[in-house]
Give the backbone structure.
Amino acid sequence: MKINIEIERSLLVDLPVKQVRMLIDEVEPTLGRFPKLKKLTRLGPDQYLSELKAIGSSIANIAHEVSYGARYRRSADGLALNWDAIPGQGNASISGSLSVAEKKTGSEIRFKVKGELRDVPVPLMYRLAAAPFIQGKFAHLIDIYLELTRDALLEPAAPAAKKKATR
């Protein structure tokens, strides 16, 4: 079964854009933070094959190990990392963007993804519910990813804040 996904999420971070922008510059660590990432293989300059552990539910007998190849590129202003699917790589075609925008109280990290999962094994009785279910599972993973990203960005600031508090 083919399942289309389209998800857009964002998260505010209490850091200036200049600090958050490093997400765009450091592609591999940024990709490596995604939950359920089993393996990340470099295919070429700014091209990777991402292989995820099974996503779904063993109870409903819906589980799919998503893999997709993508070509990554940075925007001219350095505030967005965009990716396009590489045809023929994996069992999914996923495109999207990770961008950073300045806000009054810090920065906003925006994550957009759109794509198609192919060959998802879904029992006949769950076919109608499969697409929203898988979309929900992906949305949850993206929420976790954004939280992990925020924590990674704030981590270097934590020791400095702790030193100030102990003085």
About this structure: The chain has one domain: 3-156. The chain is about 30% helix and 45% strand. The domain at 3-156 is CATH 3.30.530.20 (Alpha-D-Glucose-1,6-Bisphosphate; Chain A, domain 4). The first helix runs from residue 17 to 20.
